[in-house]
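thread from #wetlab-drylab

HS: before we spend reagent money on co-crystallization trials with 6-O-phosphono-beta-D-glucopyranose, can we at least see a predicted complex? here's what I'd submit
DV: go for it
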Amino acid sequence: MSTVKSDALVFFGASGDLAKKQIFPALYGMVENSELDVPVIGVAFSQWTLSDLKKRATESIKAARPDADKATLDRLLSLLQYVDGDYAAPATFEALKAAVGDAQHPTHYLAIPPSMFETVIKGLKTVKLNKGARVVVEKPFGRDLASAQELNRVISRAFPEEAVFRIDHYLGKEEIMNLLYFRFANAFLEPVWNRNYIESVQITAAEDFGVQGRGAFYESAGALRDVIENHLFQILALLAMEAPAYRGYAAVQQAKTSVFKAMRPLTPDDLVRGQFEGYRDEAGVDPKSDVETFAAVRVFIDSWRWADVPFYLRAGKAMPVTAVEIFVSFKRPPQALFEDAVSRHHHPNYLRVRLQPNSVIALGARVKVPGEEFVGDKRELVVDTEHPDERPPYERLLTDALDGDRALYSTEDAVEAAWTVVEPVLTQHHRAIPYAAGTWGPEEANDLLIGDDTWRVPVLKED
Ligand code: BG6
């Protein structure tokens, strides 16, 4: 079964936000690339009809792809079917079974709140739609270690692990895939990529917008669960992992999981939480909410390679810019031979990797300024790896799921190991500190930094 192509795609949550923003445009792209020609069955509990679904699909595709052409759109619309019903009602799954018809290997995509996963999986099993099928689950995978384990148990009662596809859409991004490639397709990094040469590593994921109407979801998540524990941990794992032992994604997944297992569980003093002023006025948000819209953490990886090197991660809404950037600071030269090198505040050498809004890799070095004095200036060797026509992550990931390719999906082990790291601070933490929208979050985030480290403001344009 593992690489058999799926002969139907069922997606739950067809009337929802994710379908509107990501799934329909992805399906359109897949039809455009001739990767989708099987029935696509949307399921929702919205008193919709097939024509409502087609209308929504058309609107969403036109918004995301102003260049959409009618023939491709019509082809996608002709693949669509719709089943309406309560996920808790057996009749919904009977109707779904009829719609799936002769398909032997459907892929069921649960684009629904995690609280509904169990009900839907049970429903699928009752009508045997789990047989020969795959299931794709959206993050978050649980809300803590116990619920992630429970979710994995529930899924495993209906689907074997090789049929489970856990989406972290960051893994489908070209820039993130390039991290793996850049690290292991080049030899020059490896000798210095360790505690002997690296002072600290930081990753910033900033968004200059708020919760965009997702207040109710955010109340159940917060920045730590929404972005740090999954997206940023995945980036960290790619930066910190050992070389995969052999060619193939199973080796990559093992190496990444080992990073999570070597990470020291967080303590309350490793975490600073912030909340932008105005968040409490959002629809669906508790007026006394303590949920964080910004989180900064200090993580240690207790491995031979990384012992004592701090990894700082921060993610926030309502920040000054939208950007994701990695900044790896190398240690200073052992001797301060030049007058200007004694400044405690510049990192003479660093690797800066911007992942969003576009992709750039820059190596920071100092060079002498012409003149009598031996004084220098900072320069960057910049590799611009922009891919203007790169495929949106959902398009890539859904195509892989239909093909049975799990390379860019998380494993049960990795998910549980990642939760183990954040588990202690999910309930035990300092209160969220208010910050003004459009700033870099509470000043207290500086207290996480060791020595003379500072948070780096992502650079959006090279000199
Ligand atoms: C999602 C989070 O997983 O990732 C959102 O739920 C966040 O809060 C988003 O905005 C960021 O991903 P992207 O690809 O839109 O930058």
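DV: The chain has a mean pLDDT of 95.
HS: ok that's useful, forwarding to the group
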